[in-house]
Amino acid sequence: MTRILPRVLQWSPSAKHIRRVDEGQPRILGRRDTAALVALLDRDPVANIFTRSQVDLHRSAVPDGFAHVLGVDGEEGLLSACWVGANMSPTNMSEEQAQEYALMALATRQRFASVFGPARSVLAMHEVLATGPQSIFDVRENQPLMEMRSNPQGIVRRQLRPAKPSEFDKVLPASAAMFEEELGYSPLDNGGSFYRGRVRQLIRQGHTLIDMDELGNIVFKVDLGTVTDQVAQIQGVWINPIYRGHGLAAGYMAATVDYALQHAPIVSLYVNDYNHAAVRTYEKVGFKQVGTFATILF
């Protein structure tokens, strides 16, 4: 059990900035920190794919909108970092640093949807965030982080293709069903405009793959949810319940890896440890565990 730090803040939050007042405390990164942040993230491109993709998108350590990136400096440069937006994602931090970041996040009075990343950091943050005003819905403590760097061998591929924009009305229910199975509620509650936009975006990018039966029903759906020059992360894996239990998953996942390797040299995913069937399928295809993630859901 990590030690919870006393909630005595050594910084002063304001509407736009949180000023660093002590060496080793988290500070908001600026544009001049971009190169140092990229170097830090690229030490582990698989674990840090989310924040790296955001830096690529905004071409800076300073994203547009309300999100920001926190960092802690050391004698030789940036030691650790944390993406803070609708979600939080830690990078390369000790348990004590993770608690400092969590305290700073609480000081902003910002609300979060989730925290995800390396398990040691996320679970240390959980000890602090659990004392905050937001109720925690669930904690996924053990999520194997897996990767592949070559095409699967010895597996017959199932047919997959990128979904077309005209097929949005077919893809959306499959995506929402996957989300609801995973989290227990529908992303389309209250309209779900953000989720609908996300599904459209993935389709436009060619990052949603599907297979359909002769009646036009989606049999299998998967997303390349996050892609950088180094890594393509598989997300949103869903098989129509009608077709489950027929040994189709490995063939579909092998085809997904083939497609993902056209976008990046490493293919990754993370999965709940209790989803034994999925873990077995990924191992059969050739994925190897390279780390452990955890996720806090609010």
TrEMBL record:
It comes from Glutamicibacter uratoxydans (Arthrobacter uratoxydans). It holds the Pfam family Acetyltransf_1. Coiled coil: none annotated. This is N-acetyltransferase GCN5. GO terms for molecular function: acyltransferase activity, transferring groups other than amino-acyl groups. Residues 158-298 form the N-acetyltransferase domain. InterPro entries: Acyl_CoA_acyltransferase, DUF4081, GNAT_dom. Keywords: Transferase.
